[in-house]
Amino acid sequence: MSLRKTTILHVEDDRSLQNLVRIALESIGGYAVRTAADGYQAVALARESAPQLLLLDLDLPGMNGIATLRALRELPGLAAVPALFLTASNDPAVEAELRSLGVREILLKPFRPRLLVETVRRLLG
């Protein structure tokens, strides 16, 4: 019997950050990570297979992180999936908007990979 890994959908356009997050979450956390470079790709991936956690950047090409989260929340089964933002923005108005959308955690870039894994573990219970 094989155990199915928890899947995280990571939405980030910076390739080096994509790699750092993937390595941290897969090697330290034991999670499966699916990466999208923009919001449109994220929605397509989530339609194929629903993730158990959403990990988004705020500044994305085309559709920003807030619009991407809204689009993902409209998909069947994703309304209550925990969301975490990794962002360089520490604007209180942006944080308030994210919190109003149900975002439970916001980590500022640069971040420590172990802190990211600990935060994900806490969100997933």
Structure characterization notes:
With 125 residues, the chain is an alpha/beta fold. It has one domain: Rossmann fold, CATH 3.40.50.2300. The protein is built from five helices and five strands; from the N terminus they run βαβαβαβαβα. The protein has helices at 15-28, 39-48, 65-73, 92-100, 113-124; strands spanning 7-11, 32-36, 53-57, 83-87, 105-108. A five-stranded parallel beta sheet has the order 2-1-3-4-5, sandwiched between helices. α1 packs across α5 and α2 (39-48) packs parallel to α3 (65-73). The longest helix has 14 residues, at 15-28. The model has no long low-confidence stretch (mean pLDDT 94).
Considering the protein shown, what is the CATH homologous superfamily?
A: Response regulator
- What is the name of the CATH architecture? 3-Layer(aba) Sandwich
Main sheet characteristics: 5 strands, parallel
Number of domains: 1
CATH class division: Alpha Beta
The name of the CATH topology is Rossmann fold
Order of secondary-structure elements: EHEHEHEHEH
What is the percentage of strand-forming residues? 15-25%
The structure class reads: alpha/beta
Question: How many strands in all?
Answer: 5
**Number of helices in the DSSP assignment:** 5
Rg, rounded, reads 13 Å
Strand order of the largest sheet: 2-1-3-4-5
Mean model confidence by pLDDT: 94
**In angstroms, what separates the terminal alpha carbons?**
23 Å
Oligomeric state as shown:
single chain
